Each structure stands twice: as C-alpha cells, then as structure tokens.
Amino acid sequence: MVARSQARYLAPIALVVVTIVLIVVVANSGGGGSSHSSKSPPAAARQAAARSARPTRSKYIVKPGDSLLAIAQKTGVPTDALQRLNPDIDPQVLVPGQRLKLRP
C-alpha cells in the first residue's frame, strides 16, 4: 500500500521533470535564438567563410528538396553567383538530377 501511494506522487513529479528537461534541451538546441554557442562561430562568420572559399567542384546535382539557398550554403557559392552561372534555371522550380554550374 505504501508503494502505491508513493507512486501517486512520484509519477506527476517525474512528468514535470521530464517536461522541464525537454524544454531546456529544445531551447538550447539553437532553434533560431540569438544565443551563440562557444563551439560554433556566429552565422555571419560562417557565411563569410563560405563566400571566401572557392568551390572544389565545378558542378552540383540537385537533390530532392534542394533550394537555391540550400545549395548555396552547401557549396559556398552565393545565390546570385549561382543564378548568374545558370541563367536557364528557375530558382523556384529546381528538378532533382538537374546539373548546376558552380564556377565559370
């Protein structure tokens, strides 16, 4: 009987603790907040490094779900450069398997 009455109190307490831990984990996972982790550089620094790095490949093959912005982030080529190098593409309608130039 004693174990059952303890369980009545411990179960809601455990639920509250798990909920708090979940909220803390989600809040600290970098969900778009302005806090910066000391392990990774700020977004502006990452973008500047990506712009300065020349792509090692000359072509990129579009994968399902890719967007021009995602391709620019993966390859380090700015979106305006991608559009300039690939004038025949429609950035709103990228087709999986389509080849994009990354450099002239």
At the fourth CATH level, what is the homologous superfamily of the largest domain? LysM domain
> Which regions contain 5 or more consecutive residues with pLDDT less than 50?
none
Report the oligomer.
Answer: single chain
Indicate the proportion of strand residues.
5-15%
CATH class of the largest domain: Alpha Beta
| Rg calc | 23 Å
Residues in helix, %: 40-55%
Please write the string of helix (H) and strand (E) elements.
HHEHHE
For the largest sheet, list the strands in their spatial order.
1-2
Number of helices: 4
Overall morphology: elongated
Q: What's the mean pLDDT score? A: 81
Description:
- This protein is mainly alpha-helical and 104 residues long.
- 49% of the residues lie in helices and 6% in strands.
- It has 4 helices and 2 strands.
- It has a two-stranded antiparallel sheet with strand order 1-2.
- It is elongated, with a radius of gyration of 23 Å.
In short:
By secondary structure, this protein is mainly alpha-helical. It has 2 domains: 1-29; 55-104, LysM domain (Membrane-bound Lytic Murein Transglycosylase D, Chain A).
